């Protein structure tokens, strides 16, 4: 067991069951520096690699001063298209919707700024970095296409991962014509970059045709598959270790080009190589959220009921691959309307390929839709919360399917009560604080689909009452080390202090993807199933053993708790795991389990988490500076495994939303396509002083249909609703409707 | 970064000699220089480390009522120096509004004066920049210019100076003490930074090898301690450069303004101070009309260097009026929780 793949077994005493607000099990390792992240891996003979990246956005590299780099003391090798190891598969080949084209030095072409065009490998990081600078690339430059007006829009074949670009029902034009009130508004959201605190780091080492790679990954199985294809080796020859991620946000979902380049560099020099992306290296080859321009047309009758909703999105993908931000998806699910049209159009620009980022689609779409709903409510003279209740969707609007569960009304009610929404004046610019700052209140509805991927797990229960669960799942800060342990401890019927979790390695059963807010449902489902298999076998032994007090109870007649099997109908009759196994001559029982979506349930039900976010902002009336002073979110997402971690996820999501509304914006020079703020100083995300008093209410929701555990995702829903709520609150404070995000002070100077 | 020679200077004279060599640069905290070197924007052939030079890390009140601030005094130490906080409160407020706590713990007084612009094109080695390469051209012109200058810019450079500290220093008429081969001299801070004109590459009056050894606040600067504020308007509540900032200080005598000091930050390649603006306040009743007049005088002649920064002219006016209004109300007894922020008065909390 390598040092970086810890077996975490520590508990907080005698509690451990699902629902307990446990602190992170790996917390002590992290705060004492013993949790080793990928870049902390230092195998003997390690070399360091640095990327040389393109300073143009379109064209080709015509020259590199390789000799100058090679002359620099400490430089071991310069990897360029001329000498890069031959790959077994063209990195531009597409063999599935989740396979994205990579830039692996396959040729001299440049298709976006910051594209890797060479890798310098050296004895020290400093030497590699200077070697990369000394390459001083020469280019043949073409004029880049940047921005949504770069070319005429087209209808993409699919949006997101293969979803249809156009969906809807009824006749939107007729619905608009019939409306008593209408609005039409265009909202713009900028390109955004993930900026996880931990950059993509890779330490690669080859032993013949066997590869060991330490790198953060949100999806180990897919990463192994991609590497196996590229290097032409069997998946079993690849071991990826990813016990901890310093944030992912989607950027570590598919393996990125620079991570593969580290493997190629290690193969080229025959020594282990470490490549840690510099912050600016993360603006280009690691995916991003593309800009959108969303046109919303809404109509409502005299009672405020929507007669039509038309949600048109224009977004951008790269010139060489397809990922179109599915912004309109939120309009599929949120508000009831007889006439619904959701359309997506695309353009191609000279940037890296956009990818999954923090609620891809839902975040952008929600920011626009929730503002538009606010504008429609105003046009109807209605309170924005009341308007949302009038248009409450009892069934999923796009499909007509019933919801597997939907406690959104309770979210609205509990959030509004906590926030004090009833005191909100209808008109804008009515409230000031004691210091004369403008105060505004806004609301937004949160929604995120309850997804489910595929995962497997292995569990073991030993005669001494201890247990182990093994799954190649990923903790990127959300708390998988802890939540999965709670599920496993309950499943095996032991105290969490008796449970060891092994996680984060591709050698373990596939944990699926830590993405789509589906990891607890998926990996947790597999862990639950594996534990159930163990308990079923143990129960089989006990209930068929005439010496056991459980004899004759039948498998279903016993429950596992506190290291014992207990008769369901008579809790006075029980036996410890040790006693059962001792008579059977066994020292342990192992079991495996799987989890995947239930197609029948998915066909019958629409499955989404919901929530309501209430925001208070303060705006300086003269200077325009904005500060969010209060956020209250109320969310219903099925069963809560760990309320402390779930609340933390909601807080994080709401801060993403604040960031979306007021801060994040990747600036590119439209003439060159180069970044102007590819650093954490100038690419703003909220700092502590921007982060207000926050509350997250965990609204009770039982869902018997969504999955075996009854859990929905909590990781991304917080960003939805929040950006719109803040934009709406800015309007309420100032009377100014800013439809171009982020909202900055210059827009509010009047 | 490039290979470079490293010299740890034992004396000021040794430092000045070593740094006079072409390609040499002084290294103090390196909070700006090392970033520039990592990005290949600065490639000095020799670093002259001055952090061990004796006698440059003290704040010393002088018998004549002036205060001498050593070049190596850290931003955090300067902000928390009791004499400075009491006598020049807007200096402390500006410091605490700048950068982050970690950077303030490292960054030095002279380094703050000598920090480079935050113009993104300056930081992009692939963009032509007259600062980096005289005569190359200015890629910022016609580009993304929201943060760029509205005063004092030229067709060769539209960058701004990003310092917070320099703004109150300029308002208070600080002197910059310089050691050079010929001895020592002092230069008013207003003359220390140069506007871009035809030579944006010449950012200060320092000749090669010249070393800033101290910043001196003159005796008369102490008179403003009761009515002095720094106000910083920005896109994020902390850890962001000023969109526009203002330092405003008054003396009030019998309901009228005795003397006024005023400077703007974030609008030009140096802190912007105009005598007419201060003269307009002298003897005036401190009211909105007087403040507006002074603000108008301060931004007289402003013009956008790009369509995206036109708003900064009006914002600068309003920032000056607000800063004067805050100064008139009096220096807070204790540093607010959010120094220099428009929201500083909202929470009622104090700076820890």
Please provide a brief summary of the model.
In chain A, 24% of the residues lie in helices and 24% in strands. Chain A is of the alpha+beta class. In chain A, α8 packs parallel to α16 and α15 (643-662) packs across α16.
Description:
The complex is a heterodimer of chains A (750) and B (352). Chain A is of the alpha+beta class. Chain A is 24% helix and 24% strand. In chain A, α15 packs across α16. The longest helix of chain A is centred in the last third of the chain and has 25 residues. Chain A is globular, with a radius of gyration of 27 Å. The N terminus of chain A is likely disordered. Among the domains of chain B are: 45 residues, Uridine Diphospho-n-acetylenolpyruvylglucosamine Reductase, domain 2 (2-Layer Sandwich); 105 residues, 2-Layer Sandwich (Enolase-like, domain 1). In chain B, 26% of the residues lie in helices and 18% in strands. In chain B, α2 links the parallel β2 and β3. Chain B is globular and about 60 Å long. Chain B: Its EC number is 1.17.1.4.
How would you describe the shape of chain B? globular
Radius of gyration based on Cα positions of chain A: 27 Å
Beta content of chain A? 15-25%
Identify the most extensive interface between protein chains.
Answer: A-B, 39 and 39 residues
Q: Structural class, from helix and strand content of chain A?
A: alpha+beta
| SS summary, helix count of chain B | 12
CATH topology of the domain at 225-329 in chain B: Enolase-like, domain 1
CATH-defined superfamily of the domain at 225-329 in chain B: CO dehydrogenase flavoprotein, C-terminal domain
CATH class of the domain at 225-329 in chain B: Alpha Beta
CATH superfamily of the largest domain in chain A: Aldehyde oxidase/xanthine dehydrogenase, molybdopterin binding domain
The main sheet of chain B comes to: 5 strands, antiparallel
Q: What is the element string of chain B, with H for helices and E for strands?
A: EHEHEEEHHHHHHEEHEEEEHHH
Helix content of chain B: 25-40%
Biggest sheet record of chain A: 7 strands, mixed
Gap between N and C termini of chain B: 38 Å
Across the major sheet of chain A, the strand order is: 4-6-2-13-10-11-12
